[in-house]
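Hello,

Following up on my earlier ticket. Below are the two sequence lines again, exactly as submitted.
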Amino acid sequence: MILLVVLAFLVHEAWPVLNGTGWLRFFADENWHPLENRFGLAPMLWATLAAALGAVLLAAPVGLAGAIFTCFYAPSFVAKLYRVVLALLAGIPSVVYGLWGLTVLVPLIARWRPPGASLLAAILILALMIVPTVALTSSSALHAVPRSLLHGAAALGLTRKGVVLGVAVPAARTGIFSGIFLATARALGETMAVLMVAGNVAQNPSGLFEPVRTLTANIALEMAYATGAHRAGLFASGVLLTLLVLILAWMGARIAETARHAG
Amino acid sequence: MKTRQWFRQVIVVIGLLGIAGAPLAWGDKLVLTGSSTVAPLALEIGKRFEKQNPGVRIDVQSGGSSRGVADARSGLADIGMVSRALHPQENDLVAHTIAMDGIGIILHSSNPVQSLTDAQIKAIYTGRIISWKDVGGKDERITVVNKAEGRSTLELFLHYFSLKNSDIKAHVVIGDNQQGIKTVAGNPGAIGYVSIGTAEFEAAQGTRIKLLPMEGVAATVANVRDGRFPLSRPLNLVTRGVPSNLARRFIDFARSEKVNDLIQAQFFVPLAR
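Thanks for your patience. The regenerated structure is below:
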């Protein structure tokens, strides 16, 4: 309900530019220079997708591996410690990650390949932020697998690895997937940390070490003073972002449905 | 029934909190938003003003000079902070100058380059010179740091070098002054431009940046004061129409001699009185 209200407000504020300038301009114009009347959102859309995708590709295996480790292999003391550390990491404000990225990570990358503030920095920071989400949800999903399934698999003679990878993970896949989707949604919407480390140059992501600007960072940089068509354009990019997350949520729900029916 | 009871308790708690919060709203408050160059100075002046006027709160937020203009116009801020002269189309606002400042080019302190001509700076920023060795430095790629749109430092920089923002080939786009300084201090091959006052203040704290002279004139407070430095600008507090009593008192305080030491501590130039 609230989501609909927010979406309606966004569309209403973006209407002048969606109607007047036409929404095709967002993809036809080659770059974003609102004060020179160019509203190309495409470079920033690709940057948002690239950063989020890269982060999830990094964080999902790491998070899942961590969850498997704490559920099936770690002694209970280590498992508890791991979970506490993850919960703490998940609670750190994103601007703190951004500050660490700006003062430590970016100069480190710069020494390897200047300029440092780049897509790679954004991917690493986002991955760091979403690993706890993936790990914690996967861990709960794995714990929720009925013991009887695991006992049955062991009774059939499967090795520990076989039980974990062949039985437990597939049984928990709905929970694991929803954790990954949650993490992707967070990565798509992350603003401050990405603003501080990604370089903020509005261009198509041409390489891991080139600076990029995401849709969220764009809104944060320019909203405070934008007027007229510029402001409406920023609201339109907000609509685009919301639609992205909605599509993601729908896909997640569909996959969970098919998983439930098949399993 | 249990939910009803719980609901009522929540309403009571919220009501009590609301009543408890009311006295906080009675104190006088002044909100200043805008230029990240003026913000630290406004903060210090605000602190001294609060000490001399108990019960008053001065809130300072940055966000760029364009935000200062927009907020002063819409009433979101009582006073806007703008680090440039007002444009002709901003004649619905009144500017009260509190100090003068310059814009200087900064490099990492380990960079051997001692000075750059205007033509070289322009070539670097438009992407025609990409290595430090072409201007007498090490064989390293130049990392160009540019300010985001809406910042007056960017506007004045573009105006001085007769460039458009789309001409600039930047590698990093930053918002506030502090982000720019941290970016240059963390990258030995970086070049950026910030307020001279901010840069000198940071260099005095040990941040690893250094200021370059512009067209042969050293980027110092003395040269800005004597008008010799080519790229200087006024630091303004802007209001729309007649300022409120509290705003008027704050502006008069900020323009008086009582804050000269604060202005000089930030390496800006107090106005001659």
